[in-house]
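Write out the 3D structure for:
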Amino acid sequence: MKIGVYGSSFDPVTNVHLWTASTIFHRKKLDKVLFLPSSNKRRDKNLNICDHHRIEMVKLAIKDDPRFELSTEEIYAPLGRQYTYFTMQILKETYPNDELFFVMGADLLENIGQGSWVQGDKLLEENQFIVMARDGIDMLKTIAQSPILRNVDDGRFQLVDKGLAMEISSTYIREEFSRGGEPRYLLPESCYQYIKEHRLYQEIE
């Protein structure tokens, strides 16, 4: 099987996350997409709600789509190993006969290229990637300008332009909730109701 590993904070999961996963599934002829929420123990993430709530919302968002599955490998990883490199090691052991691709946005590609990821060199050397376009980021230029990226550019980066500049940030949704706004149709209805029920994102520092 060909499996996409879609890592993100999902804070909260949005309709664009789902649309992106569906587009990647179709374009790259994947057999499955794993939604991989980031752990709040990561020092490179500043998450707004606890892991439990983000897990529950991803479950709600994907429960009716058999193409999508939740992976909590990073959430429950031992302290110090809650980073993508270690997670991909575990997933490759879990799916030894399958082909895995880490799915990320071009903004994350930039971050890895700048050397800001834990074990970023090894992550690049040992894995394949599907990279989604982001407004204002030239993916080919990003690879060419980074020694870390260009020296492993042997076809392991599959660059995807979704063809539609549809960007809904989780930050915008959080801000709307915190200020009494109405972001209802930017995320799955079940997740919207979950946020309202649990009074999440009520205050943003």
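The longest strand covers residues 2-8.
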